[in-house]
Design goal:
686 residues; alpha/beta; DNA polymerase, domain 1; Rossmann fold; 21 strands; binds adenosine-5'-diphosphate; binds magnesium ion
Length: 686
């Protein structure tokens, strides 16, 4: 075991300079090196004959040099080197650009194994810029070679050598930490074989098995850690027992609507938790518009009426302000003092809010992340709700725990994820699902159109606005470039204001505006002082203006489906027939398929599943975002099947050994400590 934690600097062939570079890749020890899993592979193992070659495909061949290399100079600065070759089937050329010096490497009559992309010009077959090696040295070219994540000053070949050395040196130290029966039952490779084959696969089959073994162990350890964490918080964290509050019935009666069945079920699950002496950690999942806010408000009401403070946190100021207004409206008749805490309030007001929180005068607080900053103290925080908060992980909850005496916690999200995944991403939370929309919602009509229909779209908007409605126009998403995104929004805004929609009131909203200005624009839109709101995606989550019934998204192909679904969720919130018009500039098949999905369903779960199938997990689903340890091998989406097995095994393990106290689980416990080192190991074993 000790050997694996050796600093890589001391590995033969590494030294301080290379060690520094490796550290940039987060590789500090030999073990880190072993778990530096290839990001891809170059399969040079299966050979084709020249005649079988397909243009555009990377192919391995064994060829014989049948003539002197030719150098062509079609124009200045360009030289083309062509080495004539043949195999039993046909003739061809190995071809390079501007690498004339390579001609020295080939000897007439010798055999080479090569791997490169095929190009066909008429009957001529060219193997472009191939990797090559004398055929009798079939060391690299004939194998499946790893391709690693690299850093400056470190080439793939160097890393291959270093890792090869590390593996050879450590074979005797790589122990097995999974119990034998788990390995047998799931037909897994041993850890040693898995590590060997993940780097230097002896065959495709073994590579698949290696990946399976390593993903499995990672997911097993992760799931086991999360499960222990969850149970800990259930057993040990003394929570607040909130009183049963009978007035809640009159509060419910005063609402402008009746709760849906799903809302009632979820609220009763929350009520049960609130009545128990353990801390609530509950995730409330519900599609856009399913009415999560009111469920949160009801919980806040009960907490406050039984003598505690309650907070609701939102990811943006716009949303915080909106919740503040909603809460103020609902609580005004019930003698509850509500305040708002966001970055943009005046220092004087802030002072006032902070002292009101400390002395208990303020009972309900709405705000952004500002709420969990150091200088915020509560008199007796009893309940914390975070809305649409994807980045709210273990750590943030730990902070909240300290702000009160283990306050109950509810996390609300509109992100639909399959249950298996929820178990991981929110592994330490209980889950409630609001699975129906309030009645009377008209299905939003969705149209995907090409840019040639923009004029017609504008006419349509005009007609709706004449009838008293309002519209959102969302500008193209310009990746990682706020400045360009804002420019696009401003251009569109000016064109609308001065030309296209001259007779209407057009507003602009983007992320870089001052918070006060943002609020003002949002307020104007809400109060119908603005007819058309041009904006970037800042309105993506939560915003609620029931009179707005048109959502137009420019360059819809640049958005994720889940994101478009969220945007669409901004309309269809009132009594009016609503429309979502997606302007799709792309002609690609995938893009058209994506638009078709949005047209065909408004079910967030289906949409997110299809989205995953089409484009794989986005950054959004990274474990980091959820405050979980980073995974080195497993991918939560593509490894869903392995995850299921790992979850099953994890349950069995914990049944027989609740804190992994049995000897056979010592290894797993060790791995678990390592994995959770940075993200709350103490939450597990203390
Ligand atoms: P989300 O789940 O997306 O956060 P909201 O809580 O913002 O949804 O609710 C969307 C809209 O539906 C709000 O205008 C809210 O007042 C309304 N609403 C919530 N519950 C009901 C209900 N049971 N019946 C009718 N309207 C409801
Ligand atoms: Mg909401």
């Amino acid at each position: 075991m000790g050997y694996l934690s050796t600093n890589i600097q001391y590995l033969k062939g590494v030294g301080p300079k290379r060690a520094a570079r490796l550290r940039k890749l987060n590789i500090n020890t030999i073990e880190d090196l072993l778990y530096h899993i290839p990001r891809d592979y170059d399969d040079r193992s299966s050979f084709k004959s020249i005649r079988e070659c397909v243009a555009g495909e990377k192919t391995s061949l064994e060829v014989e040099v049948i003539g002197e290399p030719i150098v062509l100079r079609p124009r200045r600065g360009l030289s083309i080197l062509k080495v004539p070759v043949k195999d039993d089937s046909y003739n061809g050329y190995l071809t390079w650009f501007n690498q004339e010096y390579l001609k020295e490497k080939f000897t007439y009559g010798d055999k080479y194994v090569v791997n490169g992309k095929i190009n066909k010009r008429g009957y001529e077959v060219q193997i472009m810029n191939p990797a090559f090696e004398k055929a009798n040295l079939k060391d690299k070219v004939g194998r499946i070679m790893p391709i690693y994540r690299l850093t400056e000053g470190l080439s793939n070949n160097e890393l291959i050598k270093i890792i090869d050395r590390a593996i050879k040196d450590s074979v005797n130290y790589i122990g097995e930490f999974l119990p034998n029966e788990i390995i047998q039952r799931n037909n897994l490779l041993s850890l040693k074989d898995a590590l060997l084959n993940i780097h230097f696969p002896q065959s495709k089959e073994l590579l698949v098995k290696a990946k399976k073994r390593l993903s499995f162990q990672e997911l097993l350890v992760l799931q086991t850690g999360l499960s222990i964490m969850k149970r800990k918080s259930m057993d040990e964290k003394d929570g607040i027992i909130f009183e049963k509050v009978m007035e809640i019935n009159s509060f419910l009666k005063d609402l402008p609507f009746e709760l849906t069945k799903a809302q009632r079920v979820v609220f009763s699950e929350i009520e049960v938790d609130m009545g128990l002496d353990r801390q609530m950690n509950r995730l409330v999942q519900g599609d856009v518009g399913s009415g999560k806010t009111i469920v949160g408000i009801l919980a806040m009401y009960r907490a406050i009426k039984s003598g505690y403070q309650a907070v609701m946190m939102a990811p943006t100021e716009i949303l915080a302000v909106q919740h503040f207004e909603t809460l103020s409206k609902y609580f005004s008749n019930y003698d509850i003092k509500v305040e708002l805490l966001v970055g943009s309030i005046s220092p004087k007001k802030k002072e006032e809010v902070l002292s009101g929180l400390k002395n208990g005068l303020i009972q309900a607080l709405v705000g952004t992340h500002a709420i969990i900053q150091d200088n915020v103290e509560f008199y007796n925080l009893g309940l914390a709700i975070t809305d649409e908060q994807h980045r709210f992980g273990v750590r943030q909850r730990a902070i909240l725990n300290k702000k009160g005496n283990n306050p109950d916690i509810i996390v609300m999200t509109a992100t639909p994820i399959p249950r298996t995944l929820a178990l991981i991403l929110y592994g330490d939370l209980d889950i409630s699902i609001i699975n129906e929309l309030p009645p009377g919602r008209k299905e939003i009509e969705t149209y995907a159109v090409g840019p040639e229909l923009i004029e017609r779209t504008n006419k349509f908007i005009e007609k709706q606005i004449m009838e008293g409605r309002q519209a959102y126009i969302v500008c193209p998403l310009i990746e990682e470039n706020d400045t360009l995104a804002i420019k696009a929004a401003e251009d569109l805004y000016m064109d609308f204001r001065d030309n296209v929609f001259k007779k209407f009131r057009v507003g602009l909203l983007h992320g870089k505006m001052k918070a006060n200005d943002k609020d003002e624009v949002m307020e104007d839109f809400k109060n119908h002082n603005i007819d058309i709101l041009v904006s970037t995606t800042v309105i993506e989550v939560g915003v609620n203006v029931p009179n707005a019934n048109i959502m137009v998204v420019y360059n819809a192909e640049r958005f994720g489906l889940a994101q478009l679904h969220q945007l669409r969720g901004r309309v269809g919130r009132g009594e009016f027939q609503s429309y979502c018009i997606l302007i799709n500039e792309s002609k690609s098949k995938i893009s058209r398929e994506r638009m078709r999905i949005l047209q065909s369903t408004t079910d967030g779960f289906i949409i997110s599943e299809r989205d995953l199938e089409l484009r794989g997990p986005g950054e959004f689903f990274g474990t980091k975002q959820h405050g979980l340890p980073e995974l080195r091998v497993a991918n939560l989406f593509s490894d869903m099947d392995i995850l299921k097995i790992a979850q099953k095994e994890s349950i069995e393990i914990l049944k027989s050994s609740p804190i992994l106290e049995k000897d056979i689980y010592k290894g797993i416990k060790n791995e678990l400590k390592k994995m959770f080192k940075d993200s709350g190991e103490n939450l597990i074993f203390n």
